[in-house]
Every structure is written in structure tokens, then in C-alpha cells.
Amino acid sequence: MFNEKKWDKELRNVMVKRGIQEYKMNAGLKYDEKLIKKLDKNLTGLSQEVLKNKVDRSLFLNCLDLSLSDKLGELNIEFYKNRNKVIKNKYCNWSSWRQFASNSKDPKLRKDVFDDFLKKSVKLKANVKKRTDIVVREYDKYNLNVVDSYCEQNFLSKNNLKRIINELNVKKQFNKEIEKFMQEKFNKPFEYYDDLYYVRNVLFDDFNIKNDPVKECTQVFKKMGFDLKKIKIDNKNRRNKTATACCFGIDPGKDVRIMYKKENGINDFSSVFHELGHAVHFDVMDNPLWWKRSFVPNSVAEVFSILTENIFFDKFFLNKYNLDINLLDKRRKLNEMYFLAFYVPNSLVKIEYWEGKIKFDEISSRYSELIKEYMGVDLNGNYWLLHHILPEEIIYCPSYIIASVRVFELINILKKKYGNEWWNNKESGNYLRELMRSGVDIDLGFSRLDTSYFRSVFDK
Fold first, then answer.
1. φ/ψ (deg, to 5) at 438
2. Rounded distance, CA 160 to CA 162, Å?
3. Residues in Cβ contact with 130 at an 8 Å cutoff, skipping those fewer than 6 apart
4. What residue ranges do the domains of the chain occupy?
5. CA 40 – CA 138 distance, rounded (Å)
């Protein structure tokens, strides 16, 4: 008979060790590749033990993904190491590309680097193909589909997933506003190499904010009754450190870490508030079963990070800084539109692939079509191979959209209960703590997946 408590204890022991190595690898620190391979084999063994037994459905689906650890682990390490070897030139490598772009004042140079990296991206394709083939074969063994399993794990139907994505098509508004912004600020049209990670920096480089984002966010959580002392924060600028800010819930409740690279004031605030939202969520979880703290669905995990990020962008919060709040709010709305215009095609291309509507070799061409349809620009479809999520995760991108819908529903409730400055209230902290603490067993009764609250951000 399957002993869940004993198995859970063994899982924690292996995953904590594995999480530390994953953190080091992403932080640009020395990591133990042999240990990672050994731990991945252990995780596969533990997962297969679950797959042979009648267990909680959520545990089964999570262990299906985890059972691929030894097969995917070596390929993931290969991808991580090769990416910075292949995607590089004299100006930057993949890990430092965003910083280079945000600091560059020469559009032609940015375009040249962008085009160079697009040409080199095809060298990553074989690795990604091997990984996706492994996933397909494993899911086929259990007569399962990736999209159906994703929806089940994330507490929504496939119809709702597709409805939400369809309702959040902002191309018309986005094209009008991004073109206006680029012309006013740079006297140039919006072009394919002006990607989200460049634009989100230049949107906010007019705003001078010198406060420490970590201290500011810590004060916000302190007012809500949270203590961030145990959370470790790495802001060092290492060449091979991952380009994107991220959080590692290595041992939820005990060992939680975030990392980020400094880009500019507002964007650093956005990144830090986002990742500390993740970190607090991991830190307060106390479900007695460790797997229920570690296997939180992506669209749930992103709720508390996006919620915290939105505190910073709230007009009532920004009143404390000497900023042009109306202009900042306008830029923030454009940032939200770009997020949707970009992440809708990111989501759709993965959904279509896993549903068997396109073959692997057709992903790039289909991605180019979707970018044109939802963003309005002609972009070489191999760009998906340069993204920090699309080539690495099985299906993650829809989680940001689903979480954003839930966040704005939650903000509506928080404002009704605790006022416009709900983050200054310990009672709101108690309310959020109750939502956060149970991990997989979260009560999502606050959400009807109503997109109107999210759309109201940029429909006003």
C-alpha cells in the first residue's frame, strides 16, 4: 500500500537538494552536474511509485511531469549551458541581452543584435525537439493530453481557457498606443525588435525613483503582518545569471530565495514586488503534506506575485513618490496591453502544438502568424526559442493570463473589504494568508474567471 506521508518525506529530501542546485545554475554560480543527474533519477523513481498507485489526482498529474526528471534533466542542463555559448556576440550573451537592450541608445545596434540572435537560435531547436518528443511519449502512455492535464491542474475547463484568451485580444488598442509611444519618444515606428523586454524598460525610464525596491516591498508586507526576514535575495550581476527575475521555493516555509538583475528603477520595483509576492506565498504555506506546498499550480502561484506587483502600480501607493502619476499610469496600461498582445500568441502556439494542430517543425511559422495576428508586427518565428519560458516549460505561458484575470477579481474584493489602500491593513494580510497557506488546496471561490476586471485596466 502506498504510504503518502513516508513518500512525501522522501520527496522533500530529494527536491530540496535539487532546488538548491537549480538555484545555483540559474544564479550563475557553480553547481554540481553529477549530483543533479543523481537527484533527477531519484525524482523519476519517486514519481513512478506514485503513478503505479491510486492517489490524489493532482499528485498523479504532477508526478507525471516529475517522472520525466531524469530524461529531461540532462537535456535541460545541456540547453542551459549551450544557450549562452550559442546566443552571444561581442555586445552581450543571452543572459545579459535584456540589460544591453535597455541601455542601448542605438536602434540599429539593437536590431543587429536581435537579428544575430534570431539566426543563432536555430541551434537550440534540436534540444527542444528532443524534450518535447519525450513529453509526448510519456503523456501518450497514460492516454493524456498536455492541455487537458494543464487545465485540470489549474482548476479551469479548456473552454474557459480558450474563452479567456479570446476575450483578451487587445491588438487594436495596443497597436494604436505602442505606435504613438514610439513616435513620441523615439521618432520611429514600432518594429519587431522592440520586444516586450526592451519596451517595458523604456516605458518607465522617464521616472526617477531611487528608493530600494526590497526595502519598500518589505514595508508593504510588514503592514499586512508578514515577515520577510527568512527570504534570501540576490541582486548581484553575474554574466551567466539568468536574464529574468525569479523565485525559488526550495523548501516552502523554510528556504525561499529570489534573484534579479538591475535594469532601471521602475522595472526593478516591478520585478522585486513580483518575485517577493511569490516568496511570501511560499514562505507562509503550512500544508502538512510537503508536495501540496511545492506543487502549486502555475496559474495559482502567479496570482500572489502579480497581485503584489500591482500594489506598486496602484495610484494610491504611488502617491508617496514624487512622480507624474497620470503619465506613469498611462505607461503602465500600455505595459499591460503589451503583456497581453505578446502572451496570448505565446499561449496559443503551445496550446495548438500540444493539441496536435501543428507539428514541431511548424511552431516557428505558426508563431510568426500569431504574433502578426495579435501584435501586428512581422517577426521571425524562431524568436520563441529565445524566450525564457517557451522553449523550456511544457506549457506555462497561459498561467500568467489566467492569474492576471484572477488577480483583478481579487483586487476588486480586497478594495470592497478593506478600502482602496487595502495593503495598509493587517486584516487584508490575514485574508491573503488564509488563501496562500494551503498551497494546492487553495480556495479559489473569489474567482469566476471574469475578464472584465482585468480589461477595465486599459478599457478606461
1. -85, -5
2. 5
3. 75
4. 164-459
5. 16
237 exposure class (CB count in 10 Å sphere: 0-12, 13-18, 19+): exposed
Q: Looking at per-residue confidence, does 9 or 237 come out higher?
A: 9
Report, as an integer, the average pLDDT of 54-58. Answer: 90
pLDDT at residue number 337: 96
Residue whose entry in the numeric block shows the C-alpha cell 495579435: 374
The stretch 265-291 carries a mean pLDDT of: 95
Q: What is 219-262 written as a DSSP string?
A: HHHHHTT---TT-EEE----TTS-SS-EEEEEETTTEEEEE---
Which three cell numbers, joined as nine digits, stand for 39? Answer: 537527484
> Over the chain, what is the mean pLDDT?
95
pLDDT(320) > 90: no
DSSP state of 52: T
Q: Give me the mean pLDDT over the 242-249 stretch.
A: 92
Tell me what percent of the residues of the chain surpass a pLDDT of 70: 100
- Say if CB 174 and CB 376 are below 8 A apart: yes
Tell me what pLDDT residue 303 has.
98
* Residue 102, pLDDT score: 86
Residue range 164-459 forms a domain whose CATH class is mainly alpha
| Three-state SS at 88 | strand
Beta strands in 260-346 (DSSP E): none
Give residue 439's Cα distance to chain centre: 18
How confident is the model over 86-136, as pLDDT tens digits?
999 999 999 999 989 988 989 999 999 999 999 999 999 999 999 999 999
Q: How far is the C-alpha of 308 from the C-alpha of 248, rounded, in Å? A: 17
Task: Report DSSP letters for 154-180, one per residue.
Answer: TT--HHHHHHHHHHT--HHHHHHHHHH
Closest CA to 281 of 417, 155, 442, 58: 442
